Amino acid sequence: MPHLLVIEDDPQLRSALVRALRDRGHAVATASTGMQGLEEAVTHRPDLVVLDLGLPDVDGARVLRMLRSVSEVPVIVATARDDEPEVVMALGEGADDYIVKPFGSGELDARIKAVLRRLGTGAPEEPERPIRVGGLVVAPSAREVTLEGEPLELTPREFDLLCYLARRAGQVVSRRDILAAVWQQPLGGADKTVDVHLSWLRRKMGETAQHPRYLHTVRTVGVKLAPPGSPAEDGDPSGGDGGSEDGSEGGADA
After folding, report:
1. Per the structure, how many domains does the chain have?
2. Do 103 and 18 sit in the same domain of this protein?
3. Which domain, by its residues, includes 205?
4. Are 116 and 97 in contact (CB under 8 A)?
5. Strand order across the beta sheet in which 222-225 lies
6. What is the residue-averaged pLDDT of the chain?
7. Are strands 27-31 and 3-7 parallel, antiparallel or unpaired?
8. What pLDDT score was predicted for residue 188?
């Protein structure tokens, strides 16, 4: 039985979430303030935290930063706003997923199960051979990436995304497929999640949406990983991935 911690200051919403999540087979602890939530998370080590950003004592983003400094517990952020800066901030501070208020308990339960399922997936029984795409080498078993012989420092989610694309090098992959495979959201989710991580990957790989080398946005279809100099990429010259290339997509990675 998964043990959850819900950090939410609204007593009615908190009570409703507790009832709904317990009915779905979760053990649930609660906290009404950020500091209480931090103490609960450190003391009792839940399997997952649902964190409201609008807390009365400490800003939710700060709570997330403090939590990340002492724990790798998965966090789903609950936010009342669906604007890109809010999404980028949550992912950049280390959230594993986010959900926009108001939301149904069924959707929250599905996201909780998806995050726990993704983090609980074991490694393949036999080591998978490194994948080479031009000067890019992705080693799935070692979870290492090099570009032109130089190592790339990627977050776990960035690696999962790049590895997924590398396994399908030369193919156009839709954002829905990426969300289903990398974020374990088979019914789809927010394209901004994919776009933000693509923007971060591009930055680390020394390219931009306007001048891609490996990561190509294919207009209205999806994304393709291909080596430099490959035939017509049908790229979207406008970038089309939702992340700006001037650094405004956020300074930290999820």
Report:
1. 2
2. yes
3. 131-225
4. no
5. 172-173, 222-225, 215-218
6. 82
7. parallel
8. 56
